[in-house]
């Protein structure tokens, strides 16, 4: 077992029909009965029924409580819990508990723990404390999965499989010698020859040419300036290495069970720990863990972004599942504040509005002990007399009231934002012109403007079909391959509108600069190009002739067929274009060379909507969220009022949460959600 594990990824299977784990919209959470004595389990299921829980994720961290020492297993408690849930009509999303190896295994084989870039090996005590290239870990993990799947694979309560937990959360990168060997093998598959690799990585710089594969190591150490091409490939390798663990477990499960297999992603705004877009086709249903950040004033918009991104990666294989979110304070943020009254339901139903057919929480019952003892739960420490419990029960009722929405789709969007983790990884790393820029803020800036106007927008990965979109926004997509560049180039040429922001298309997929002026991949279609970057210093701002100003980033832009829409008015760029537009037949191509203020983004967005004719879902003030889900012969308008004021919105039909008919407008008291089956 000294050979490393290869991260070669087979092509994904053709999408198969999916049997959803429950009727209606699934409701529940992570269930960790192993933390509680038996008597509590009976109270648990009674209260689950009271709340309307229909699906629980079971056994996620239960490896050590089942396999108590090497090969010695006590299934009795799990057998009992499975029967108890089944007897109470609660479906099980059964987890392979491979996220947290048992302590006996970590003690016998400390070498399975991941090694950080500086050579430090993680000691036991955390989670996901394993290296995906380690064959000892793989052996023990698959041995346990085999036992688990053969025991419960045909049990009627097991309706879904949950592989590991948040793969990559805690062990995204391992720099050990086995990972190094795995990386080399992955590179050989990708490049075929060292000559090709040396060209792709530009190793002539600093004399880093590799003469043998053995000379290549992961980007270890603290010098902070590894070759950017090597860095990006190591990120890709690491994502594939983790995916190979998921696939190995899935292969074992599928020998014993016909239930669908998935794993919980961590999709939000910005670069993710692994490339979920490439993982998604290997899951029967895409599932997400989403936690709002207490200190984010626009956390509802970030949630919407994540929902739209989930839809983007589950294209054609809808619906998706919200595997985890919270009823209140998490415990891993700096200041873990409770949610505001009504926020639990608004958050949950916002995910449903954007395509989730299930909302689950971490976790069912709050833990008294352990690292997460102060994390919120469906049943909090204060029990059933708490506000959380009342809202959890109310949400269960609301999900039953809208059960008929299950199986419908979010109506097709006409706008899309293109995201790619490779761009995010590349942007946040190495000797960049501005080392503080991150992938995320610019994505959200454009999504926020559309969200405020109730315009639905898909957040799509690099290989998405862009044909159906009238507006395609490409924020800070630093790295772009030829195929994607060509598909984006086609958008204005077929009459659509393309908007590209600074730093997009500067590098090819090898992370090498595309020569000839920025943004290399899009220069021609934009009719504008930049020859120099002017990152602004801390506290510095540049003014624009629309009355706004920008921080952080500006560029010297030249027109080559485009016209200036907004220009710089200060500094050495004064008089030069900041925002440009080129008419391309019936289409248009926009370039935005700086991170605009929200009001300036709004002005550009208003023009984009006017020129594409994209309509708002409803006319309502910012902070009122509106999304429509459609079925063959019906449609549902989700309206979420995130503001402190009452609003009314045009809608005619039956409001399902209150059971009342509305016409021609529905009233949204502050903080409420309404779901109208439209007439
Ligand atoms: C998730 C994790 C859960 C729990 C939760 C707390 O990332 O999957 O097991 O730790 O965070 O917010």
Can you tell me about this structure?
The protein has 679 residues and is of the alpha/beta class. Among the domains are: 415-612, 3-Layer(aba) Sandwich (Rossmann fold), CATH 3.40.50.880; 624-678, Golgi alpha-mannosidase II (Immunoglobulin-like), CATH 2.60.40. The strands form 7 sheets. A 9-stranded parallel beta sheet has the order 7-6-5-2-1-11-10-9-8, covered by helices on one side. Strands 14-13-15-16-23-22-21 form a 7-stranded mixed beta sheet, with helices on both faces. Strand 27 and strand 28 (660-662) form a beta hairpin. Bound molecules: beta-D-galactopyranose (GAL). Beta-D-galactopyranose binds at residues 165-166, 169, 289, 291, 324, 326, 330, 332, 362, 372, 375. The site of beta-D-galactopyranose has 12 residues, from loops.
């Amino acid at each position: 077992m000294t050979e490393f594990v290869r991260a070669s990824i087979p092509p994904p299977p053709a999408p198969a029909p999916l049997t959803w784990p429950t009727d209606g919209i699934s409701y529940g959470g992570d269930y960790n009965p192993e933390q509680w004595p038996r008597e509590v389990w009976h109270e648990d299921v009674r209260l689950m029924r009271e709340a309307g829980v229909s699906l629980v994720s079971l056994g996620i961290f239960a490896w050590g409580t089942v396999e108590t020492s090497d090969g010695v297993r006590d299934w009795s408690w799990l057998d009992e819990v499975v029967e108890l849930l089944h007897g109470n009509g609660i479906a099980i999303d059964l987890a392979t508990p491979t996220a947290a190896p048992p302590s006996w295994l970590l003690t016998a084989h400390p070498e399975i723990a991941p090694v950080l870039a500086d050579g430090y090996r993680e000691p036991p005590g955390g989670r996901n404390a394993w290296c995906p290239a380690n064959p000892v870990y793989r052996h023990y993990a698959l041995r346990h999965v085999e036992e688990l799947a053969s025991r419960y694979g045909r049990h009627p309560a097991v309706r879904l499989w949950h592989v590991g937990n948040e793969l990559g959360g805690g062990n995204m990168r391992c720099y050990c010698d086995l990972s190094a060997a795995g990386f080399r093998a992955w590179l050989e598959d990708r490049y075929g020859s060292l000559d090709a690799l040396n060209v792709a990585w530009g190793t002539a710089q600093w004399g880093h040419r590799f003469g043998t594969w053995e000379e290549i190591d992961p980007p270890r150490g603290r010098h902070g300036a590894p070759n950017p091409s090597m860095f990006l490939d190591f990120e890709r390798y690491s994502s594939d290495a983790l995916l190979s663990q998921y696939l190995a477990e899935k292969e074992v499960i599928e020998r014993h069970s016909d239930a669908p297999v998935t794993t919980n992603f961590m999709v939000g705004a910005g670069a993710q720990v692994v490339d979920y877009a490439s993982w998604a086709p290997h899951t029967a249903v895409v599932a997400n863990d989403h936690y709002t950040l207490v200190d984010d004033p626009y956390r509802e918009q970030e949630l919407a972004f994540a929902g739209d991104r989930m839809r983007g990666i589950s294209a054609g294989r809808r619906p998706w599942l919200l595997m985890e979110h919270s009823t209140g304070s998490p415990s891993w943020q700096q200041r873990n504040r409770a949610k505001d009254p009504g926020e639990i339901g608004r958050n949950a139903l916002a995910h449903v509005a954007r395509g989730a057919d299930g909302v689950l929480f971490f976790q069912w019952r709050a833990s008294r002990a352990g690292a997460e003892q102060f994390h919120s739960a469906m049943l909090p420490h204060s029990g059933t007399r708490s506000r959380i419990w009342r809202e959890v029960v109310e949400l269960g009722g609301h999900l039953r009231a809208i059960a008929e929405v299950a199986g419908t789709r979010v109506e097709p969007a006409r706008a899309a934002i293109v995201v790619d983790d490779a761009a995010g990884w590349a942007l946040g790393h190495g000797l960049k012109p501005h080392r503080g820029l991150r992938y995320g803020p610019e994505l959200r800036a454009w999504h926020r403007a559309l969200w405020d106007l109730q315009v639905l927008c898909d957040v799509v990965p690099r290989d998405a079909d862009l044909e159906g979109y009238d507006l395609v926004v490409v924020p800070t997509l630093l790295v772009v391959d030829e195929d994607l560049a060509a598909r984006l180039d086609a958008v204005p040429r077929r009459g659509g509108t393309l908007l590209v922001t600074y730093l997009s298309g500067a590098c090819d997929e090898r992370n090498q600069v595309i020569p000839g002026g920025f943004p290399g991949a899009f220069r021609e279609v934009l009719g504008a190009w930049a020859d120099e970057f002017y990152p602004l210093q801390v506290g510095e701002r540049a003014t624009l002739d629309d009355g706004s100003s920008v921080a952080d980033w500006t560029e010297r832009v030249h027109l080559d067929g485009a016209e200036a829409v907004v220009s710089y008015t200060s500094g050495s760029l004064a008089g030069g274009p900041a925002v440009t537009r080129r008419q391309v037949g019936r289409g248009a191509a926009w370039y935005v060379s700086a991170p605009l203020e929200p009001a300036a983004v709004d002005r550009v967005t208003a023009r984009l909507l006017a020129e594409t004719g994209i309509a708002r879902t409803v006319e309502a003030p910012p902070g009122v969220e509106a999304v429509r889900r459609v079925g063959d012969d019906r449609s549902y308008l989700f309206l979420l009022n995130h503001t402190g004021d009452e609003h009314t919105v045009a809608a005619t039909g039956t409001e399902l949460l209150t059971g009342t008919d509305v016409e021609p407008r529905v009233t949204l008291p502050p903080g409420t959600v309404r779901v109208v089956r439209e007439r």
